Amino acid sequence: MIANKKSVARLSRYKNALHRFKTMGLVRIFSDNLADAIGVTSSQVRKDFSVFGITGSKRGGYQIDDLFAQLNNILGKDQIQEVIIAGVGNIGAALLKYNGFEKEKIKIVAAFDIDAQKWSDTAPVPVYSLDRLIPFVNARGIKIGIIAVPESAAQMVFDRMVTSGIRGVLNFAPLRLRSPKQCVINSVNLVTELENVIFFSTSGQRIFLGELEADAGAHQVE
Amino acid sequence: MIANKKSVARLSRYKNALHRFKTMGLVRIFSDNLADAIGVTSSQVRKDFSVFGITGSKRGGYQIDDLFAQLNNILGKDQIQEVIIAGVGNIGAALLKYNGFEKEKIKIVAAFDIDAQKWSDTAPVPVYSLDRLIPFVNARGIKIGIIAVPESAAQMVFDRMVTSGIRGVLNFAPLRLRSPKQCVINSVNLVTELENVIFFSTSGQRIFLGELEADAGAHQVE
DNA sequence: AAATATTTGTGAAATAAATAACAAAAAAAC
DNA sequence: GTTTTTTTGTTATTTATTTCACAAATATTT
Question: Do B87 and B114 have their domain in common?
Answer without folding.
Answer: yes
